[in-house]
Amino acid sequence: MIRLKDVSKIYYNNGAVGTGFSNISTEFKIGEFVAIVGESGSGKSTLLNVISGLDTYEEGEMYIDGKETSHYTERDFEEYRRKYIANIFQAFNLVNSYTVRENVELVLLINGYKKQDVKARVDKIIRDVGLWELRNKKVTKLSGGQKQRVAIARALAKETPIIIADEPTGNLDSRSAKQIFKLLHDMSKDKLVIVVTHNLEQVSEYATRVIKMHDGKIIEDKKVKEVEEVKPELSFHKPMTFGNIYRLALKNTFNIFIRFAIILVVFIAVCITILGEVGSRNKQLYDDATRGASDIFIDASPKRIIINKDDKSEITLSDIEEIKKLSHVDDILTNDFMRDVGVIYSTAIYDTNISAIDIIDNFKGELEDGEMPKSDNEFLLVNNENSVDTIFYDDIINVNGKLNIENCGSAYSTLEGRIKGYAYDNSLSVDQNIMYVTENTYKRIQAYAFISNTEVSVKYLNGYIYEPETRFVELDNTIPRNTVYIPKASVKGCDETCLNAGVDLAIKSFYKTDNFKYDVKITEDRDDTIYIKINLDDVYDLINKDVYQLSVYADDL
Q1: How far apart are CA 316 and CA 299, in angstroms?
Q2: Under a CB-based contact definition with an 8 Å cutoff, are residues 484 and 467 in contact?
């Protein structure tokens, strides 16, 4: 059944080498009752662990039914133990919170038996080991001898051909020890029983063979009785049923209520902590979004979806119509760069960053104080009523101020006007606000914002280059259409023919570069840092010529 050939067990620990046993050669057959004796440290338990597959070996070969095991993996040894080995431990290794019946039944449930199929079998084994009266008693209330009987019953229930017992009577008195050895002998005549013991006298009546060990070697291997070898029957086993897994999990959860309650409290506390951290992080991200915490987008509302094409091509009217058909589309905004224009409103005592500019016709709220704007230089300011800006309202209504449209942090253009009224919108965060203006003013701000986000280069048509770099551009409706005004100081080297030829105006945005032919008019300005001047309507035509980016606002987050 089991044959060892020159088997050695070697331990390695922090560079030190120790030997459990060395060069053991022996054989074990079904029907034998083998007693292994020897002083402490002689290698008895180590040999038993190797035979039972609880430990590996480093040299030699161990054969199981004639098959080599030196190549076995951990999974292979696990399968070997399930089929061949039933262990009886000196420390019992029972589930203390289970009853006698439950401990014996557990082995069969783990091996794949259904609960309804094992009752009769478990009852018989419990009767055979003399524990019937104690079958429903928890093992914590049993004596040492009774616990060892439960351990034997559990080993017998597994129905393996080999029973391994390591000091099974070490914690028992001599009377109980003899009863345990007799029980092992009576219950396992068709099995191989290997017992490690310090007391040969207790087991000598039942042993068919005695092996003595000393210093990791077998010094005597004596047959006491002849036995007839029988064919082993392997233990039945298959994967645990789902019902058994669920039943054991539920039982182990509530088996010890105090332990369950402590684990539950710890689990709930950990969950609350984790969920609290996740929730706090998500709340922070949401707050950052709703108050516009972005280096690029001033309007960082979570309801805003910015759309462009992968190839940066034009968004057509048919594209926009398709987007309108999507569910939850509340609004579509073309030329949406207006949502991300840096604007500051200033008076002599008050400065505030404007989060968004909108047309007064889009205001749907109720006026809190003042009056609605009627002319191009009148504005309406809306924010959260908890905003710090609200404390200045009485000081800024009808006070002259300026809307400064910024380009890279420097004031690019200024529109003069005054706030005529204010209103509250508590859907805004406390640091958001909206400035409502007339359609003409919105159009002007849009043109300024467009120019502030582009590169403008000017080139004379006859090849003379006029500072072909980004220039400041001023919008002026008094300038004729399709005409560029350029300071006199900037045309050195360009003769009358050059000037009469006109200029190419290149306006480069993120999506494309447009080139337009303009007439040129020289101003008397002597400083070439004076802005290039263009008619506002010319720029506004450029804005509405094509659409390359738009924003969709969802009606439900």
Answers
A1: 24
A2: no
Place of tokens 């200045």: 392
Kindly report the CA angle at 541 between 540 and 546, in degrees rounded to 5?
Answer: 110
Retrieve residue 516's tokens: 């337009």
Main-chain phi, psi angles of 40, to 5 degrees: -60, 135
Q: Tokens 């509405």 label which residue?
A: 544
Q: Please, which residues have CB within 8 angstroms of residue 122's CB and are 6 or more apart in sequence?
A: 101, 104, 105, 108, 157
- Tell me the C-alpha distance between 424 and 427, whole Å: 9
Tokens of 177: 């020890």
Contact 28, 35 (CB under 8 A): no
> In 291-400, which ranges are continuous DSSP H helix?
317-324, 393-396
Beta pairing, strands 532-534 & 473-475: parallel
Task: List Cα–Cα distances, 442 to 284, 358, 362, 410, in angstroms.
Answer: 33, 7, 12, 20
**Tokens, residue 223:** 């047959």
Residue among 375, 384, 383, 454 at smallest CA distance from 415 = 375
**Residues, the chain:** 557
Q: How far apart are CA 359 and CA 441, in angstroms?
A: 9
Task: Express each pLDDT in 58-107 by its tens digit.
Answer: 999 999 989 999 999 999 999 899 889 999 988 888 988 889 999 999 98
Under 8 Å between Cβ of 3 and 62: yes
Backbone angle region of 485, left / alpha / beta, with phi > 0 → left and psi within -120 to 50 → alpha: beta
- Please say whether the beta carbons of 472 and 410 come within 8 A: no
Tokens of 486: 């350029």
- The single-letter code of the amino acid at 441 is T
Q: Which helix (H) or strand (E) holds 354?
A: strand 351-354
What are the residues whose beta carbons fall under 8 Å from the beta carbon of 506, sequence distance 6 or more? Answer: 455, 456, 457, 458, 459, 468, 513, 514, 515
Going by the DSSP 8-state scheme, the letter that residue 168 receives in this structure is T
Residue 534 sits at φ, ψ, to 5 deg, of -135, 150
Q: Of 501, 519, 520, 493, which Cα lies nearest the Cα of 462? A: 501
Judged against a pLDDT cut of 90, whether residue 129 lies above it is answered with no
Six token digits for residue 517: 């032919």
Q: How many helices (H) and strands (E) does the chain have?
A: 14, 28
Calpha distance 153→149 (Å, rounded):
6
Q: How many CB atoms lie within 10 A of CB 398?
A: 11
Q: Are 166 and 237 in contact (CB under 8 A)?
A: no
Regarding predicted confidence, which is higher, 206 or 527? 206
Whole-model pTM over 0.70: no
The number of beta carbons lying within 10 Å of the beta carbon of residue 56 is: 14
Contact 188, 180 (CB under 8 A): no
CA distance to 351, 373, 472, per residue, from 348 (Å): 8, 21, 26
What is the signed CA dihedral for 379, 384, 389, 391, rounded to 10 degrees? 110
In 3D, which of 279, 304, 302 has the Cα closest to residue 290?
302
